[in-house]
Amino acid sequence: MSKLYKIALAGEGGQGVQSVANILAEAANDGGKEAIYIPNFGVEQRGGVSIAYVQIDDKVIGSPKFKTADIVVALSDRSIERTKRYVGPNTVFIYDSSTLQAAEIDDRAIGIQGVEADPRSQRPTSLTDDEAEFTATLPTNAKAVIGIPANDIAKNELHPRVFNIMILGAVIKATGVLPIEKIKEAIELKLGSKFDAKPELRELNFKALERGMNLVDKVL
């Protein structure tokens, strides 16, 4: 039976949510599915909240817009506020529970394209350190609310620039919308030349993808 997956992803400009959405849509299309991807960068561009809307189905998708999502991913406090409108009783809400600095990634990039770290490319996370206050900002009407320390893991175990690839892994595991092989193929198409020049980047990106998958259970 065909299932329509409705996904909303949001974060600060530079956290790579558009990259995640783009890869999801391309992997779905390459896998013979229908996919719609609509980016919304906000009026502030890189200083504002970046939102991406993705729909994936086995059949033609009737409308490019939706009122409630099956899964919402919010990577900052501002994005939590911006995405609450898409949460309903069947929505799984995933947020970044890290308290370290957020990795900044060009929205045009997919994962890590170089291993050189520039501390100027990082900005402090906007999530509050007051856990009680922050928890109060989370939606209360969702099917499930899941916090994952993606930034912490990316920075301490892998590399800050693969933060968005970890989020991608969490999304595909939580939804089961696409097999990991299709996602890897889509990443390979985007970064194949980079991987050929530096094979270690392929291993790092794919490790981040699998690490993100291990952070969540299938919930849809």
What are the defining features of this structure?
220 residues, Pyruvate-ferredoxin Oxidoreductase, domain 3, alpha/beta, two-stranded antiparallel sheet, 7 helices, 36% helix
Secondary structure elements and pairings:
Blueprint: E1 5-12, H1 17-30, E2 34-40, E3 49-57, E4 71-74, H2 77-83, E5 92-96, E6 102-103, E7 122-123, H3 131-135, E8 144-148, H4 150-157, H5 163-175, H6 180-197, H7 199-213
How would you characterize this protein structure?
There is one protein chain. This protein has 220 residues and is an alpha/beta fold. The protein has one domain (5-101, 138-218): Pyruvate-ferredoxin oxidoreductase, PFOR, domain III (Pyruvate-ferredoxin Oxidoreductase, domain 3, 3-Layer(aba) Sandwich), CATH 3.40.920. It has seven helices and eight strands; from the N terminus they run E-H-E-E-E-H-E-E-E-H-E-H-H-H-H. The strands form two sheets. The chain has a six-stranded mixed β-sheet, sandwiched between helices. A two-stranded antiparallel sheet has the order 6-7. The radius of gyration is 16 Å and the shape is globular. The model is unreliable at 99-103 and 112-128 (pLDDT under 50). Keywords: Oxidoreductase. This is 2-oxoacid:acceptor oxidoreductase family protein. Residues 13-213 form the Pyruvate/ketoisovalerate oxidoreductase catalytic domain.
